[in-house]
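Hi,

I'm pasting everything inline rather than attaching a file, because the server keeps stripping attachments. The sequence lines come first, and each chain or strand is labelled.
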Amino acid sequence: SAVISQKPSRDICQRGTSLTIQCQVDSQVTMMFWYRQQPGQSLTLIATANQGSEATYESGFVIDKFPISRPNLTFSTLTVSNLSPEDSSIYLCSVGSFGTGELFFGEGSRLTVL
Amino acid sequence: DQQVKQNSPSLSVQEGRISILNCDYTNSMFDYFLWYKKYPAEGPTFLISISSIKDKNEDGRFTVFLNKSAKHLSLHIVPSQPGDSAVYFCAAVGPRTGNQFYFGTGTSLTVIP
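And the predicted assembly:
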């Protein structure tokens, strides 16, 4: 298993600003994943953060809106830029064990945009 | 396109009775199916999984059943306990679908003491 810490756990932001979410893992992992859970919706993969290369974004998500950093094998950040109320969601960092088919999640960061 | 669906947003069960949570999927290429449990203000935690080559997996009070012909899986919790009250997500993944996890929208289970 992996222990994943996310910061902040929650924040309230003004429209047009940006929020950066940090994710720290207690072990070195090749891939880290960023998910979004909008109210009443399923967890949706935003992007895969690869150490040493650009993040891979899923359809509907772009780097300008969700820039990701991955400076080392235990840390990643997700920035949600130019915030609008539609960005109000829970953002979750995760790492996976494809051998067992499991994902381990951080506590999530609840963002409210006014 | 929602490849994994949980059609019941909520479920209430008396303590001691059985809870049955259902999940349907559309892609026959999934190889693993998983259930995650989420408490408020916490991230989802892995609960139990099943490989597509099996039809049942049991772990204590939790049993997952897979019906591949119907593309349906279910999670049985028996006996249900108040501490089981949480949101349950089913998920599907596999190498043949790019190893991306596809999640359902979740079912909120309330176990009434």
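Chain B touches chain A through 27 residues (CB under 8 Å).

If the labels don't parse on your end, tell me and I'll reformat.
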